[in-house]
């Protein structure tokens, strides 16, 4: 017959909570705001600031399961692309009727 309690007291490992790393939520919020401002306003200075903040956010990210630093990096790249894209696309000029 098996014993009533199959656990052995010498094999029990007590639970020890791992402290969560402090995330810098302020930098993430500012980075998101600047990326969105660059996407909407298409100002080159703001786009470069968004790209630098996104790169900083990516390099300083921790391995938190709910954080997504790659999406922020893609937003920084998208802000640069949306700012410089009109320079490379030729839009047709409307004819001037005379």
TrEMBL record:
Molecular function (Gene Ontology), one example: protein folding chaperone
**Coiled-coil regions in this chain?**
none
Any keyword Transcription regulation?
no
Alphabetically list the UniProt keywords. Answer: Membrane, Transmembrane, Transmembrane helix
- Biological-process GO terms, alphabetical: protein insertion into ER membrane
Where it sits in the cell: the answer is: Membrane
List all membrane-crossing ranges. Answer: 30-59, 71-89
Indicate the principal place this protein occupies in or around the cell.
Answer: membrane
Query: What GO cellular component entries does it have?
Result: endoplasmic reticulum membrane
- Its protein name is Fungal protein
Origin species, per record, is Schizosaccharomyces cryophilus (strain OY26 / ATCC MYA-4695 / CBS 11777 / NBRC 106824 / NRRL Y48691) (Fission yeast)
Organism taxonomic ancestry? Eukaryota, Fungi, Dikarya, Ascomycota, Taphrinomycotina
């Amino acid at each position: 017959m098996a014993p009533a309690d199959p656990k052995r007291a010498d094999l029990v490992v007590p639970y020890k909570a791992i402290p969560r790393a402090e995330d810098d939520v302020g930098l993430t919020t500012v980075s998101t705001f600047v990326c969105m401002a660059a996407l909407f306003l298409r100002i080159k200075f703001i786009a470069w600031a968004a790209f630098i903040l996104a790169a900083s956010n990516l390099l300083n990210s921790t391995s938190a399961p709910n954080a997504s630093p790659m999406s922020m990096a893609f937003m920084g790249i998208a802000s640069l692309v949306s700012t410089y894209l009109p320079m490379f696309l030729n839009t047709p000029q409307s004819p001037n009727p005379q």
